[in-house]
Amino acid sequence: MVGGDLSVGYTTVSASNSGVTVPSGASMVVITAGSASADFALTLPASPTSGQLLFIRNLAPYAATYSDGTGSNSSDVALGGGALYAGSPAGAAGWIKVF
Q: Is residue 93 part of a domain?
């Protein structure tokens, strides 16, 4: 059995053609429809800690696309879908999509 507290930073953000930025400290994010009229970029916090978890739920009518900037780690969060990201291990860049 593991003891301890679970701290959840829940937030909502609105989709727009200029993209969505997830605020630092959030662990659960819901993307709402907003003003987006096409797929949009998803920017995650710049410096996750190793093993940090971040759940994204996309309720916008378009997909959100994340890229870590290296070209080796990109993924989509489909419209109506969700994704779980984990902070990369030390020495690696960005976030890794778990599912």
A: yes
Could you give the CA distance from residue 27 to residue 25 in angstroms, rounded to a whole number? 6
| CATH number where 32 lies | 2.60.120
Structure tokens at 63: 């997909």
- Domain carrying residue 22: 10-97
For residue 39, pLDDT beyond 90: yes
Question: Who contacts 47 (Cβ-Cβ below 8 Å, separation ≥6)?
Answer: none
pLDDT score, position 31: 95
Q: How far apart are CA 99 and CA 91, in angstroms?
A: 22
Q: Is residue 3 a part of any domain in this protein? A: no
Structure tokens at 47: 């410096």
Q: What's the whole-number average pLDDT of the chain?
A: 82
Structural domain contains residue 2: no
